[in-house]
Amino acid sequence: LFLVGKLKLFKRNNVLKLLFGLWRHLALKSRLQLNGLFVVIIFSAFSELLTLGAVLPFLEVITKPEDLWKIDRVKDYAMIFGLSNKDELILPITLIFITLVIISTFIRLANLWLNSYLASTIGTDLNSNILKQPYWTHIGTNSNSVITTISSEVLLTVGVLNSTLQFITSG
Predict the structure, then answer these.
(1) Under DSSP, is residue 116 helix (H, G, I), strand (E, B) or coil?
(2) CA angle, residues 131, 133, 138, in degrees to nearest 5
(3) What's the average model confidence in pLDDT over 115-135?
(4) How many other CB atoms are found less than 10 A from the CB of residue 46?
(5) 33 with 121: CB under 8 angstroms?
């Protein structure tokens, strides 16, 4: 059991070392894009939190609008918007809930698209770093190793990066 725990810790540290190593090789533009992606991830988390927080009032107004109408603050806000009884709460709260769900969905889709886009952009940067080496480097290098690196290891790196970004997004 102790050995299994050590192995998991080693694998986790190894992955973190690889990710930080990858970070060092990224261009400034890719680093800034990753930072922007993390801001979008935070917005996505807050929008999903708002959507989840809106579920209970939505269910409450559908099942027991009279209980919601008993809350003084709800009555005050309803009066501001010209709602005079409990039955008039259903439409506005439903519209608010639907709007929050739609906004949250768009932010989530944008987040997933940005994850894939950024992972592929980083893969392109890695490919170009290999191909932009000086001519003398290419003459001294076995072309099979370059093709293998481009076709398999860069694709694997992009896949791992995309999976890591997806994990951060869903976590």
Answers:
(1) helix
(2) 85
(3) 77
(4) 12
(5) yes
